[in-house]
Amino acid sequence: MSNIVSIFDTTLRDGEQSPGCSMNSREKLIMAKQLQKLGVDIIEAGFPASSPGDFESVQQIGLELNGPKVVALCRADDADIDAGIKSLKGSFNWGIHTFIATSDLHLKSKLGIDRKTAIKKAVRAVERAKKHTDHVEFSAEDATRSDPDFLVQIFSAVVKSGATVLNVPDTVGYTTPAEFRDLIIKLTNEVYNADKVVFSVHCHNDLGLAVANSLAAIEVGARQVECTMNGIGERAGNASLEEIVMALKVRNQHYNVSTNIHTEQIFQSSRLLTKLTGTVIQANKAIVGANAFAHEAGIHQAGVLKNALTYEIMSPESVGVSVNQLVLGKHSGRAALMGKINSLGYDLTDKELSSIFKKFKKLADKKKIVYDEDLEVLVMEERSTGIEKYKLISVNVTSGTETIPTATVILSISGKQMPPKAAMGDGPVDAAFNTIRGIVNIPCVLTAFVIKAVTGGTDAQGTVSVSIEWEGIRATGRGSHTDIVIASARAFINALNRLDLFLQTKPIDGEDQEEMAGI
Ligand code: KIV
Ligand code: ZN
């Protein structure tokens, strides 16, 4: 058996499907390129049959990547499989991932079919995909609440039809490490030709056991894990890529397997995802949280200074946390800026560098020191402009102890500058939001508003994350500036642009969307 565990990243499918983590196709492509740099073996780029937008995004990722295998998720029916094939045919390295639910609960209540029909559909889907690609993965949705003997039956049938990877999802995060271990042992012993296929696991985190369950399965022979950056995913999320990879690396003598991941790219990948989605990671999150390598207690600090191993089981550098304290200021030149941005893991085109250099100079005039975090904000802003419907031209507010907060805003909509509008609010940010709502004529509700200083000091850039909701659709947005009212207005407009994107890329039909929500 191989001692390499394949990392199957589903950040762009299962992760992106979760509330607040949606990305447009450009953002997905940026993330996919970073996952390629990280060294993941397989990228699940999306669910092509779910919407025209997803189809195009999978297609684009398949065409632009030239390393990892790119796979598309498809239900076990002809139309889905055909959409998956169509989206990826012509890609450098691709495969199909098809699935059907196998628990009696899902078969009866969700699909209204019996076990025999499920096997028939699974076999047909695998055979159809196999005509176009060598790589066909089959997943038994809700496997951990399925009859294990039925799993042996359906997995054996799809292996006979050409499946090369058998995935065992803990769809609702229900299993425990010991139970999951036993299930994998049974399947690897009893499925037809089990030694000729790869066993994969896909664990959700409803009981906080996704990583532990995945590792338990690896101990008994699973050689592919499906996971997401930062553990994003449906409900409580998926198993976190960085936690699995670092557990296998740090405890290599115990697990005796390794991965192809370039671990120094972990932090950069995690940060990129939070910037693209606007979601914030808890400070004490393992590996990538802000406090993961911070030692607060004096006794710990003293120990680490004498010998880092006293309180650190892995070095910050091993996961790409920069210990380079070199910072830039207003006298730094273009070459220094380029060098610094490259060291943070971003490759810039000349055009991007020129534009970022101008913004950097402006920022450096306002702040004495420009930190890595400030530069990352500039890069992300540069890369997220250009296709938005709504653009902020100016925002001005009056507020104070003796006045009603009022904002005056000028926006452009689809390239056309709108006349200035003004409105009042409970505070300057509320006034700005009310004015923007009036201009775009979308009476959305603000459901979350978080301000964070990206660096220390009163001259820090504030990053604002907002969530808005309108007609049952939720969208998040982010904006940064040294002025928090401007940062807030940018975040609100960013969310409105994402909302607009959802409205443009409506799923193929409502029923499909409902079924997707149940995955
Ligand atoms: O959680 C799940 O069961 C899934 C499958 C589609 C693999 O996401
Ligand atoms: Zn899942």
In a few lines, what is going on in this structure?
The protein is an alpha/beta fold. It folds into three domains: 278 residues, Aldolase class I (TIM Barrel, Alpha-Beta Barrel), CATH 3.20.20; 51 residues, no CATH class; 115 residues, 2-Layer Sandwich (Double Stranded RNA Binding Domain), CATH 3.30.160.270. The protein is 43% helix and 18% strand.
Radius of gyration: 24 Å
Annotation field: number of helices: 19
Strand content: 15-25%
Task: Label the CATH architecture of the largest domain.
Answer: Alpha-Beta Barrel
The profile of the biggest β sheet is: 8 strands, parallel, barrel
Strand order of the largest sheet: 1-2-3-4-5-6-7-8
Mean pLDDT: 90
Shape: globular
Number of domains: 3
Taking the alpha carbons of the first and last residues, their distance comes to: 31 Å
Bound molecules: 3-methyl-2-oxobutanoic acid, zinc ion
What is the CATH C-level name of the largest domain? Alpha Beta
Specify the structural class. Answer: alpha/beta
Count of distinct strands? 15
**Percent helix range:** 40-55%
Poorly predicted regions are 506-519
CATH topology of the largest domain: TIM Barrel
The CATH homology group name of the largest domain: Aldolase class I
